[in-house]
């Protein structure tokens, strides 16, 4: 993963553990019913928008044609996905791809045109005003790109705002807010106004405000896009740390592929309102669903995203018994290091069982983007997911399992 | 939902206003600046011209210093003053130049205003030329010769015609009709306010320029700029009945006082005093000149006059 | 009517025309020409006359007179008056009286101390000193009691305006429909001259303080409503979304986010409301408001410029101080406040302010110094009058070479005002409409053109076509002079920091000086007639034009200036090729403001011989003649609307602020 580039200076293995652990703590243990389940979701802007989703003559049109024919813009088109408990679900796309609209539909900040959304099995679209407020107050908190802080309130009062809305008493909410000030590292700035803070500090306030109400899900709408690159990196670390500590479910919107790869357990890549591919970072990078995605991930340092699982081949001869052992979710770049050090192919070992081996040729193949081991013998077919990430939940789950196990190895 | 709530609030509050407080007759209302200590207060109307200021200044001085009243003054134009008088916003007008419409409505019809008798001064409106010009051209004082001098009375404002300077819009004037009906080659130029008219007359006088102006007596300006009246066709009773067809001079009007009816009945000594208040043209002019020319405050002027005319005002005080 | 028929086909054919002719302005012109070519022969055949045809006028004087009579007859008996206006009126009297009693009880020392302390709290030490000085000067000029009367009236009027304006603004800020309904009304009220409110108000409330307060409220509430609505609507969408995402109720959103976010606009609204109310203070004296305005008005009657000035100086000082204090308070808010100013310390502060003021007031009471001491009075009337006399005596005529002001006035009347007026009045009525339509459409949209043409047609229908064109000619002349002088001074001031600093207090004074004060000097210099009316308008409108010009030129991006300098441009080249083109929006705004302000003093022009509509309004007021006054007032409003639309570039509609 790209994480390594920061952390590798100190210890390459710890970085991989950090990213791996992000999925582990809450993730698999409580896996089961999804937090959010979205199906057939549409959001169309424009006159008489409600007729579009049902009309198959219109749903097939491209954005330009649709606008020309109906004057409508479909920001979200027939989107379906599930967000599992404890995972970081990233929605990624360029501006205009509909990702921000999508996340707003989840709590009906934008009213969807068609489709179903449920949170913990409860139909969000059927909620009345009071129930919806309840949802927004306690179950899903949002962090915004432009912070959305109240300029006339101090840092402390901004963080306490969500509690104030809920009717929590002044002393209690201040006490609680003070905790979260510490949590996001803003001690000593409690009385400042947002205007006196830097962008990064403001977003920490936004984060603390969202956390203070102890929501079930955190929604992030491009929270770090407005920040400088270095600050952005810090904030990403912060989110990773929070996730590791609390295991809260997160839906994270971004246009930054690196950010998506770094944070996401799974990534939904959007284009023109549709999800073009949904899968783990490795799947997206390793098996782009189409040319658009391929173009998108072209410059990604593949060796840092791809794991050896995708590059290995069956062991031949005594390969299964010697050479360095690596976990299945070891990144290719780490495997290269091991292979280079020992000069022999590395064994991919999971729970003591040897799954296969990676040799320098295979690893170079990944780096070069030729995709498969050069010798053409082919890797284990079952380990390579279909082009469509959606269609292979098994492979996905397996990979997750593997990764979480990998933590133990590291 | 919000709209419903708003309208409900509005409805309730208007109901409260309607039922909770009962009727409020704003015609029985005093000025918020009236005597705070609860002393007896008289409110007098001051019109914009200085003669009226002189009446009020003297009346005010005597009411305050001899009868122990507090006096408020309100400056309003003549017609609105009638209206205010009928509403009781003011208690008395001390100098009225004749408003038959208002008199019919408020005195005869609604009976909210009571005549308060003569002021003792006779007012007269007319056309005037400066005396320095009349001396050079004696025949200008007859309206028939005015066209001969139209050229000399020309200004940029009147264009190709002679200028007849008129004053404040609150004053009674038939000049437009007069110019038309007497076939005069003149243009009526409205100064729009007395202040503007006086300033203009003084500028003309300073340069000894000829001018023709609508003006009235008594007026202190005659002391500063001597003016001679131009004779118009003689006034006959009723010749000014139709404002479109007027072709005669303005009448001589004995100036009148008017009191609010309630005040006239229940105003005690103040009402009696104001009914008795009556002085001469000279008296009024003396006070006017102190105010307008020596720039004394009305109060100082009144004090000065009161000091030297005890016999006159002693007679006004109610026994 | 003709106006409507001009515009309706125009819109339909607009698309066609656009495809034929690429250039928009040219397209518009061509389209208008076509419409004109079709309509004019028809119109001309039917109503061939130079002036507005009789057949197209509506006589409104009868119903107006009847209304006026009905009000007078029913004022003391009809439930509407007994149960509504009566209570309004009583409430005004009671509250003004209450404030007045408090002010008198506090005594001059208490009032001054309280004002200075408040200013210190919200705006700092310098303004506190300024505030104290302003009040002391009022006392020194022997204007303490009238100043307190005016202050009492202003406090009530401003509070009422703010409450009313805020409520309206709230409604418009929260509901799109209310906003759409209210916006044109508020826009129109902004070009309404203060005088036009007096007549109907006086008819209902009679003369006196209630009428003055109500007229002031009607005049001063619109900016508050406008800015409140703007502030509420302009709330940062991101913040509002964030707040909504936390599950706020509508009421919580309003109270904790929308209102606090709009506080800068609210404060600006307060500032504008105070300024408008103060500018009404003198005009309200026409309906018997008492106070400083009454002193100005009485001084006017005895042609005493000095006394009028003495009564005006407190108004001017009060206006400048209040402007600065509310402005400074706004800036402090804008800084988001220093971290120290928490709610608790604020309360302590205000407590100190209150205690201090009460202490001073009590000290005044015990030393029996409630009234301003008689000995501490400076009489400025005499020297001022001498100065004015000297000035008018030496400038009026016979100045060597350049001629006196009276000669200028004469030449201006003969060579500028007369030809423009005669030209306008000589034009066939439909061609005036056509010109208006062309100008408005070229500068704006077909909507603005339609409004402008309708406004002009309304003037004709009201039967005041001729005097309106007379007024229009004066307005055009005054605007031209204002712009020439204003742009020139503005351009110079923009280049010299020092000059701008020198100009600032002068402009402040002229902007806040009651217009009645320069009435006499203007007549003394220019004689009676339209020339002094134009002069008064120029004096009134010039400060705003200079200010906007200076700011506009100043704001030209330094990068553009630097690059042109680096290319070796001369000062003149810089001004002409860089600054003027880049400052174009500001200059257009200056034109628009100039027009609106000039129109606002048309009625003052009526008081110095300007005649036409201004005189008619004054006449209506003086004679209680609703028909004449109201019709003339309405015509001024229509002229204002028309001129505003004709000079209002479309972009400005999206601009913030009043």
Automatic annotation (TrEMBL), chain A:
This is Betaine/proline/choline family ABC transporter ATP-binding protein. Residues 61-297 form the ABC transporter domain. Residues 1-29, 368-410 are annotated as: Disordered. Residues 1-25, 369-384 have a biased composition (Low complexity). Belongs to the ABC transporter superfamily. GO terms for biological process: glycine betaine transport; response to osmotic stress. GO terms for cellular component: membrane. Keywords: ATP-binding, CBS domain, Nucleotide-binding, Transport. InterPro entries: AAA+_ATPase, ABC_osmolyte_uptake_ATP-bind, ABC_transporter-like_ATP-bd, ABC_transporter-like_CS, Gly-betaine_transp_ATP-bd, P-loop_NTPase. GO terms for molecular function: ATP binding; ATP hydrolysis activity. It comes from the Bacteria. Residues 385-396 have a biased composition (Acidic residues). It holds the Pfam family ABC_tran.
Automatic annotation (TrEMBL), chain B:
The keyword Signal applies. It holds the Pfam family OpuAC. InterPro entries: ABC_Gly_betaine_transp_sub-bd. Residues 1-23 form the signal peptide. GO terms for cellular component: ATP-binding cassette (ABC) transporter complex. Residues 40-306 form the ABC-type glycine betaine transport system substrate-binding domain. Keywords: Signal. One of its GO terms (molecular function) is transmembrane transporter activity. It comes from the Bacteria. This is Glycine/betaine ABC transporter substrate-binding protein. It comes from Streptomyces sporangiiformans. The lineage of its organism: Bacteria, Bacillati, Actinomycetota, Actinomycetes, Kitasatosporales.
Automatic annotation (TrEMBL), chain C:
This is ABC transporter permease subunit. GO terms for biological process: choline transport; glycine betaine transport. It comes from Streptomyces sporangiiformans. GO terms for molecular function: amine transmembrane transporter activity; carnitine transmembrane transporter activity. SUPFAM superfamilies: MetI-like. It is found in: Cell membrane; Membrane. Keywords: Cell membrane, Membrane, Transmembrane, Transmembrane helix, Transport. The keyword Transferase does not apply.
């Amino acid at each position: 993963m790209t994480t390594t580039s920061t952390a590798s200076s100190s210890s390459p293995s710890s970085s991989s553990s950090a990213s791996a652990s992000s999925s582990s703590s809450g993730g698999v243990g409580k896996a089961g019913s999804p937090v959010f389940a979205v199906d057939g979701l549409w959001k169309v802007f424009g006159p008489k928008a409600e007729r579009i989703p049902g009309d198959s003559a219109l749903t097939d049109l491209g954005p330009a044609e649709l606008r020309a024919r109906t004057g409508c813009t479909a920001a979200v088109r027939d989107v379906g996905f599930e967000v599992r408990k404890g995972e970081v679900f990233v929605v990624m796309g360029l501006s205009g791809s509909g990702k921000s609209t999508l996340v707003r539909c989840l709590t009906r900040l934008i009213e969807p045109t068609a489709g179903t959304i449920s949170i913990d099995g409860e139909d969000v679209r059927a909620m009345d005003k009071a129930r919806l407020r309840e949802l927004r107050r306690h179950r899903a908190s949002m962090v915004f790109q432009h912070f959305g802080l109240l300029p006339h309130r101090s840092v402390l009062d901004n963080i306490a705002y969500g509690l104030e809305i809920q009717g929590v008493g002044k002393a209690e909410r201040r006490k609680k807010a003070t905790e979260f000030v510490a949590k996001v590292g803003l001690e000593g700035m409690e009385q400042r106004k947002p205007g006196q803070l830097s962008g990064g500090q403001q977003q920490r306030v936004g984060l603390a405000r969202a956390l203070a109400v102890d929501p079930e899900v955190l929604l992030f709408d491009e929270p770090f896009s407005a920040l400088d690159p270095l600050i952005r990196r810090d904030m990403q670390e912060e989110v990773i740390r929070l996730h590791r500590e609390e295991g809260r479910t997160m839906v994270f919107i971004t246009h930054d592929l690196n950010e998506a790869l770094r944070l996401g357990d799974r990534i939904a890549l959007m284009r023109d309102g549709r999800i073009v591919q949904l899968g783990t970072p490795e799947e997206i990078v390793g098996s782009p669903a189409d040319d658009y995605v391929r173009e998108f991930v072209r410059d990604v340092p593949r060796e840092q995203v791809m794991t050896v699982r995708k590059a290995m081949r069956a062991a031949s001869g005594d390969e299964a018994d010697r050479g360095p052992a690596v976990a299945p979710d070891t990144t290719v770049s780490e495997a290269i290091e091991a292979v280079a050090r020992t000069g022999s192919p590395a064994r991919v070992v999971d729970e003591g069982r040897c799954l296969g081996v990676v040799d320098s040729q295979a690893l170079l193949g990944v780096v070069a983007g030729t995709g498969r081991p050069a010798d053409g013998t082919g890797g284990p077919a079952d380990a390579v997911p279909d082009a469509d990430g959606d269609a292979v939940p098994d492979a996905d789950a397996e990979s997750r399992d593997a990764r979480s196990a990998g933590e133990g190895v590291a | 939902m919000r709209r419903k709530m708003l309208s409900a609030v509005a409805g309730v509050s208007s109901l409260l206003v309607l039922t909770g407080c009962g009727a409020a007759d704003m015609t029985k209302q005093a000025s918020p600046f009236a005597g705070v200590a609860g002393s007896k207060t008289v409110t007098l109307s001051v019109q914009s011209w200085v003669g009226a200021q002189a009446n009020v200044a003297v009346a005010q001085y005597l009411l305050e210093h001899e009868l122990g009243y507090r006096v408020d003054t309100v400056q309003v134009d003549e017609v609105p003053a009638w209206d205010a008088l009928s509403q009781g916003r003011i208690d008395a007008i001390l100098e009225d130049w004749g408003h038959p419409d208002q008199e019919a409505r408020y005195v005869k019809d609604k009976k909210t205003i009571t005549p308060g008798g003569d002021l003792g001064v006779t007012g007269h409106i007319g056309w005037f030329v400066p005396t320095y010009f009349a001396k050079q051209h004696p025949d200008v004082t007859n309206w028939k010769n005015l066209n001969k001098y139209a050229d000399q009375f020309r200004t940029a404002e009147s264009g190709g015609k002679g200028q007849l300077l008129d004053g404040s819009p609150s004053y009674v004037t038939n000049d437009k009709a007069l110019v038309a009906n007497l076939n005069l080659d003149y243009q009526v130029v409205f100064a729009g306010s007395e202040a503007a008219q006086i300033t203009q007359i003084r500028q003309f006088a300073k340069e000894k320029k000829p001018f023709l102006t609508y003006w009235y007596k008594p007026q202190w300006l005659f002391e500063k700029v001597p003016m001679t009246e131009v004779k118009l066709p003689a006034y006959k009773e009723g010749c000014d009945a139709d404002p479109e067809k007027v072709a005669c001079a303005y009448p001589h009007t004995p100036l009148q006082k008017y009191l609010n009816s309630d005040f006239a009945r229940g105003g005690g000594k103040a009402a009696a005093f104001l009914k008795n208040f009556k002085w001469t043209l000279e008296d009024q002019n003396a006070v006017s000149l102190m105010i307008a020319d020596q720039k004394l405050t009305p109060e100082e002027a009144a004090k000065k006059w009161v000091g030297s005319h005890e016999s006159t005002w002693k007679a006004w005080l109610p026994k | 009517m003709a106006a409507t028929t001009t515009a309706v086909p125009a819109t339909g054919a607009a698309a066609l025309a656009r495809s034929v002719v690429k250039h928009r302005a040219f397209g518009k012109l061509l389209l208008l020409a076509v419409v004109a070519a079709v309509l004019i022969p028809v119109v001309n055949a039917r109503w061939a006359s130079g002036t507005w045809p009789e057949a197209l006028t509506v006589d409104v004087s009868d119903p107006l007179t009847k209304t006026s009579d009905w009000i007078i007859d029913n004022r003391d008996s009809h439930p509407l008056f007994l149960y509504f206006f009566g209570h309004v009126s009583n409430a005004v009297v009671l509250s003004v009286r209450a404030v007045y009693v408090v002010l008198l009880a506090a005594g001059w020392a208490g009032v001054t101390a309280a004002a200075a302390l408040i200013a210190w709290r919200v705006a700092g030490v310098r303004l506190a000193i300024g505030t104290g000085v302003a009040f002391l000067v009022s006392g020194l000029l022997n204007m303490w009691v009238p100043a307190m009367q005016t202050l009492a009236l202003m406090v009530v009027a401003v509070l009422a305006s703010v409450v009313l304006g805020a409520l309206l603004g709230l409604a418009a800020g929260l509901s799109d429909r209310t906003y759409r309904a209210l916006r044109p009304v508020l826009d129109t009220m902004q070009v309404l001259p203060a005088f036009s409110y007096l007549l109907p108000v006086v008819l209902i409330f009679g003369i006196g303080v209630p009428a003055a307060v109500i007229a002031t409220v009607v005049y001063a509430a619109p900016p508050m409503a406008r800015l409140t609505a703007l502030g509420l609507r302009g709330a940062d969408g991101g913040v509002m979304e964030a707040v909504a995402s936390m599950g706020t109720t509508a009421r919580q959103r309003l109270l904790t986010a929308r209102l606090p976010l709009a506080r800068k606009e609210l404060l600006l609204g307060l500032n504008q409301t105070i300024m408008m109310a103060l500018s009404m203070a003198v005009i309200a004296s026409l309906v018997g408001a008492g106070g400083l305005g009454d002193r100005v008005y009485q001084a006017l009657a005895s042609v005493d410029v000095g006394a009028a000035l003495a009564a005006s100086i407190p108004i001017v000082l009060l206006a400048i101080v209040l402007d600065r204090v509310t402005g400074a308070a706004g800036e402090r808010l804008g800084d988001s406040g220093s971290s120290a100013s928490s709610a608790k310390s604020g309360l302590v502060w205000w407590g100190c302010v209150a205690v201090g003021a009460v202490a001073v007031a009590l000290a005044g009471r015990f030393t029996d110094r409630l009234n301003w001491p008689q000995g501490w009075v400076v009489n400025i009337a005499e020297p001022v009058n001498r100065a004015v006399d000297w000035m008018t005596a030496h400038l009026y005529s016979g100045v060597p070479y350049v001629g006196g002001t009276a000669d200028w006035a004469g030449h201006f009347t003969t060579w500028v005002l007369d030809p423009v007026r005669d030209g306008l009045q000589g034009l066939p009525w439909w061609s005036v409409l056509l010109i208006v339509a062309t100008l408005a459409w070229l500068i704006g949209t077909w909507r603005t053109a339609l409004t402008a043409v309708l406004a002009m047609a309304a003037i004709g229908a009201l039967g005041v076509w001729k005097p309106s064109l007379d007024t229009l000619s004066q307005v055009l002349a005054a605007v031209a002079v204002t712009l020439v002088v204003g742009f020139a001074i503005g351009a110079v001031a923009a280049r010299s920091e020092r000059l701008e600093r020198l100009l600032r207090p002068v402009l402040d004074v002229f902007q806040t000086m009651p217009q009645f004060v320069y009435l006499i000097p203007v007549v003394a210099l220019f004689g009676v007639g339209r020339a002094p009316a134009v002069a008064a308008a120029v004096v009134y409108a010039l400060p705003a034009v200079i200010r906007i010009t200076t700011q506009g030129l100043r704001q030209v991006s330094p990068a553009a200036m630097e690059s042109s300098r680096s290319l070796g441009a001369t000062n003149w080249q810089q001004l002409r090729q860089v600054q003027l083109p880049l400052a174009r929006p500001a200059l257009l705004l200056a034109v628009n403001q100039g027009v609106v302000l000039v129109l606002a003093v048309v009625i003052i022009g009526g008081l110095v011989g300007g005649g036409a509509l201004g005189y008619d309004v004054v006449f209506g007021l003086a004679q209680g003649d609703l028909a004449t006054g109201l019709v003339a007032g309405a015509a001024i409003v229509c002229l204002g609307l028309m001129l505003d639309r004709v000079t209002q570039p479309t972009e400005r509609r999206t601009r913030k602020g009043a």
